[in-house]
Amino acid sequence: MPKILPNIIIEKSYQDKISGYICGIDEVGRGCLAGPVVAAAVVLNFNSIPIGINDSKKLSKIKRNLISKELKIKAIDIAIGEANSLEIDKINILNASLLAMQRAYRNLTIPIAVALIDGIHSPTINCKTVNIIKGDSKSISIAAASIIAKTYRDNLMEEIGNKYPKYNFKNNVGYGTKEHYQSILLNGLTKYHRRSFKLFK
């Protein structure tokens, strides 16, 4: 059975009804024990779309990085938004994810008519929003955003890991691996850990 990739069908269905740009928005890092939740907003050039765009979780790190570099050349606009661990602890992970999405949207440099959002919740932004469950496997714009957000956050966690080598952030990127939990037990918490999460096992 052929592999079905995210496509442009959803975008095209709105493109015929609006005057303006469409962006895809997705976030990564909701389930991590450490680091920010990161969202990306991407406005694709539908006449020049990189080949192989898919849900970032279904791509190898090498493939994600290659597509991310190509997107930064070919996309009309790309923006990142973050909510840090302190904000996550203060307002909870769902609201922090929506805040990161809102910041990504606001960091775009062009006006947006429709924002396609992965999942069932939408940030408060100044355009029409369309929620798509499993959007990163359906909409090519959301899938592109998932790739941008994932590569950005992975690189950020690697940088943080250089300061805190005992936690192996380069490989676990903040997720709750057995090794990560063990590192917390042995070394305590960094300023990047989310105190509102279950950090000890």
Structure description:
By secondary structure, the chain is of the alpha/beta class. It contains seven helices and five strands, in the order αββαβααββααα. The chain has a single domain, classed as Nucleotidyltransferase, domain 5. Strand 1 and strand 2 form a beta hairpin. Helix 2 packs across helix 5 and helix 3 crosses helix 4. The longest helix is centred in the C-terminal third of the chain and has 24 residues. The protein is globular and about 55 Å long. It starts with 8 loop residues before the first helix and ends in a 14-residue tail after the last helix. The model has no long low-confidence stretch (mean pLDDT 96).
In brief:
The protein has 201 residues and is an alpha/beta fold.
Topology:
Elements lengths: L8 H7 L5 E8 L8 E7 L17 H14 L2 E7 L1 H7 L1 H14 L5 E7 L9 E5 L7 H24 L5 H4 L5 H10 L14
Parallel strand pairs: 1-4, 4-5
Antiparallel strand pairs: 1-2, 2-3
Feature tags:
single chain, 201 residues, alpha/beta, Nucleotidyltransferase, domain 5, 5-stranded mixed beta sheet, globular
